Backbone:
């Protein structure tokens, strides 16, 4: 069965620090990859997605993610975090042409002002 | 535009009771799904549907039933609630998740089973 691993459970950063959240998956075929964000008290929303093409994808609010096929990874990055980025971040994997979307355990990001 | 609407937002049950979590979407999405969110485990897929009359099991289907009689509605039924089903439940929909990947989530339903 496919799995999605997010190795950082809780990350604490100061404002303006750089962010990188790890995501690895175990599925061997072609996959679509996503990052979702859940701000405190809100529902999940899409941050960015990768389907094909340029492995470096840009999302909303200055986030980007890089797909490295050989490492089965899709890490999320942001050069300079803000207090408003405090949220929980979920990596998700959807096998190509499949309706099964699997999520990682999530990484809680706390940004100190 | 309401998006995905879940009811109730909070519910407390006793072990063995049954209940239905309601989910409705007004975006004419073919795909609808239910997830449960537990600390340290992220979101786990319970059941999903790719259209009216079609449902399938996800990662953790035991103890839950679903049906899809209309495009708009996708209720989740707990036939005999257990404490292990204490969780936050999210309904999500998409036009076609395999094509777009963007799930639209409801606000969640927090269920406590005593």
Residues:
């Amino acid at each position: 069965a496919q799995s999605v691993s997010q190795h950082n459970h809780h990350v604490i950063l100061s404002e303006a620090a750089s962010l990188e959240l790890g995501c690895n998956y175990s599925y061997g075929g072609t996959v679509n990859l996503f990052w979702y964000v859940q701000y405190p008290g809100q529902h999940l929303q899409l941050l960015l997605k990768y389907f094909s093409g340029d492995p470096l994808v840009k999302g909303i609010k200055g986030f980007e993610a890089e797909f490295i096929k050989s490492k089965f990874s899709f890490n999320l990055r942001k050069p300079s975090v803000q207090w408003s980025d405090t949220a929980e971040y979920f990596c998700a994997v959807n096998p190509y042409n499949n309706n099964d979307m699997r999520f990682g355990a999530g990484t809680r990001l706390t940004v100190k002002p | 535009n309401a998006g995905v609407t879940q009811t109730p937002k909070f519910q407390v049950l006793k072990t063995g009771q049954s209940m239905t979590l309601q989910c409705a979407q007004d975006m004419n999405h073919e795909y609808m799904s239910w997830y449960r969110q537990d600390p340290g485990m992220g979101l786990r897929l319970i059941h999903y549907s790719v259209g009216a009359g079609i449902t399938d099991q996800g990662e953790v289907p035991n103890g839950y039933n679903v049906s899809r009689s209309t495009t708009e509605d996708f209720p989740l039924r707990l036939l005999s609630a257990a404490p292990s089903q204490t969780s936050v439940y999210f309904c999500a929909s998409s036009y076609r998740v395999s094509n777009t990947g963007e799930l639209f989530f409801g606000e969640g339903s927090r269920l406590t089973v005593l």
Summary: The mean pLDDT of chain A is 92.
